């Protein structure tokens, strides 16, 4: 069947919109990319790749429920695509729908038994379900297909860490770091494992490695600050908490830990001021209220402590 010129023109326009959406996505302009894809699909709703790309864009915005719907629409058009099924299973895991995730991974196994990500990502599902033996089984199945997958080592490392098998987790994560040196979280995770395993010098080294590559990562700066506080490096810890507030002035946990530093150094007036600021910024934060009650009790003010 031949298409008339107007129909061909419309389809060409849809292709151009989809190409433009890819450029916008690569540039980090996700809402604009979604708008272009939506217009392309309005012209040609039968392109499974465009529904898949919508899902990827929604994933990048942590909008996993809508991403699931988009993956399912893509699968209506291409039901045996292992990559789409894999992404759908990952989002089912992210939303806690583990049975659906496992059923989707099983379908991948039926269609493409050598599709390694289907085993690699199932490690995460089983880890979150606390079924760690099955998580390790998936790791070894993935190894048979690709023995050098950095994500497999990373995922099974998370399983090991959650079981407090810190030395084995470190080995897996150092393997990830060797295979994929630019992995965004690997140095931080190794730092956490060394900290948990009591090797403070190595933990500090890996915190610093992470922050050299991501100096603006406020969550890691906070964790590093807490680490420094715990090992008694109070001035350096204070510097980290203040650095967070330079980067993000409403980061309430940094204010709270500045209060902790003040309290450790017996500066109760400064500590109270910082705890009150933390409560004002985040009324649901429990820690500052508890500390204010402790300070009030220490001052002999029982009525104030009850508040």
Automatic annotation (TrEMBL):
Pfam families: TPR_1, TPR_16. InterPro entries: TPR-like_helical_dom_sf, TPR_rpt, Ycf3. Gene3D superfamilies: Tetratricopeptide repeat domain. SMART domains: TPR. Keywords: Repeat, TPR repeat. The keyword DNA-binding does not apply. PANTHER family: TETRATRICOPEPTIDE REPEAT PROTEIN 6, UDP-N-ACETYLGLUCOSAMINE--PEPTIDE N-ACETYLGLUCOSAMINYLTRANSFERASE SPINDLY-RELATED. This is Uncharacterized protein. It comes from marine sediment metagenome.
